[in-house]
Predict the structure.
Amino acid sequence: MMFLGVFLAIAILGVLYLVGIYNVLIRLRNRAKNAWSQIDVQLKRRHDLIPNLVKTAKGYMAHERETLENITKARSQAMGAGSVREKSKAEGELSGAMSKFFLVVENYPDLKANQNFLALQEELTSTENKIAFSRQAYNDQVLFFNNKIQMFPSNIVAQSFNFKTEEFFAIEDKQERKVPKVNFS
Amino acid sequence: MWELIKENERKSWILFISMGFCLSLLGYVIGRVWFGPDGGLAGTLLALCLWFGLALLSYFKGDSILLLSSHAKEITYDIHPQLFNIVEEMKIAANLSSMPRIYMIDDPSPNAFATGRSLEKSSIAVTAGLISRLNRDELQGVIAHEMSHIINRDVLYMTFAGVMLGSIVMLSQVFLRSMWYSSGSSRRYRASSSKGGGQAQLIILIVTIAFAILAPILARIFYFALSRKREYLADASAVRLTRYPEGLACALSKISGSNTELRVANKITAPMYITNPLKRKKIKAVGLFSTHPPIEERVRILRDMMGGVNYSDYQKSFSKAKSGTPAIMPASALDDPAFISIRKPIKDSVKAQTKKQKARDIGDLMRALNKYIFLVCLCGLKIKVPPNFKKPKVSCPRCKRQIDVPLTDLKTAASVDIKPQVYIRKTKSWETFKCSCGKLLQVSPRFGGSRITCYACKRKIEIKSSN
């Protein structure tokens, strides 16, 4: 009888433990999903801002038609992308086109003095940051989640409830992949 | 990460309970001295009630008390888009579900603090001086530091601890003063007690007084020790969020370079700010009473992080700077699975401005916060119209042009009408009517003039008779 009681207590504790692990897994997956939706929101915001930017810049930079066209093209490609991998590739290209554009802008002081453009530039800079940060938050969450799935003992629960590892949102832009130089000045 | 937060929460509870213990012990001795041996229990109970009440107060109203006492005003996107954007960026990086509210303090001293009770209900306040001095990356570092206080669950407990400490200090002050000026009640109590216990009573009294002196000091030491450690932790988390230690390091050294004191801060609220807002003297050693670790050390640790932004990188740099001190982070926070490198600095979207221009911008920012409206004259001068301006036109101080004040933007819009109001009398007796500012006006039967002036908005109203 005593033995049965102890056995029962251990069994109940074990089940509670498994339930706890299951809940942690669910929470982590939801956090990852939330982070992913943030990326989507910010990418959409960037797509919305770009036509305004092109419209404002067009009048000032007649000689940079190619740069502007590249942005527009990259934008429409990014908007059509479906899977995570496709998306990260297209968005990486768009980021590259944007950074090229902002380099060129340096040569147009009139454009840089335009209040409208300044406001747009702050919005776009911030949106770029937000994309980077949401990607970072998403990858952090995915890392936690994948670790939890692969590590003992949570991997038992993960396997029996068919949790799958999530994909990272990788950086496809070659320029971004380079090791950054740190400038201590 | 999670373990770090758990550990923080556990320590906060220990602090919270030990503060309560301190308070009830203080209540006990005060009760005993004032009201005799039976008063001890009552004093303890009262102190516990006070503790509970204060806990509830700081839970529900702590953030608003703090923000009100520092004269902070809430800002929206329109007033400062960049600040708003930066906070949103950090909110995204921290994967928070809701945006903290942003407040601004009209003070030239650069500083910032965070408050709130949970992840969902939190606020970040920055001073005008901070915004005027820092660039985008630096501001981001500071905001990330404050956001880290929120995600590390420091804010509620700091508010708790602040309120508790305040009350302990106050209580012991009151007690000591009363002992000093009128020891009558205690003397009476001593006389009426048993004759043999005179000496023992004296000892108890001395112990009591010693305790009353020591309690606030001890509480303060606890509080400050906790807050110092949390500054390091928040720095580490901020780097983890921004992936850019140089931003925060630059911001900290800029802040330490300014030597204006923050007017709205006091001893209790000081630990909540990013750097100590009170003392600006350079102190090398960390005293028991310093609320913050020395800035130079924080900057050095941040700059020594060799290319990585993980907690382990911060810890390595920390133990290099302060060899011999135990690790500030639990081991579980240190085994980061992957190396993350420092990112590139972000180019500031706002072009470099002169100091004068910046000061002007900040002035305008504060005016926008105080509901001023801005008019641009044809000569190019920007005219700032205060919200209580009542006239329909303003003359430009430079070119003397008359400029229309867009009244719909002003709070007093209703008080000045372009079209004159007309009231048509119906009878010959007393009549009451409403002015368009909402005030009631009366016309006497003997009134013979053609217009009257509203006493509230000074508007002229034409009076006509019906026949």
About this structure: Chain A has a mean pLDDT of 81.
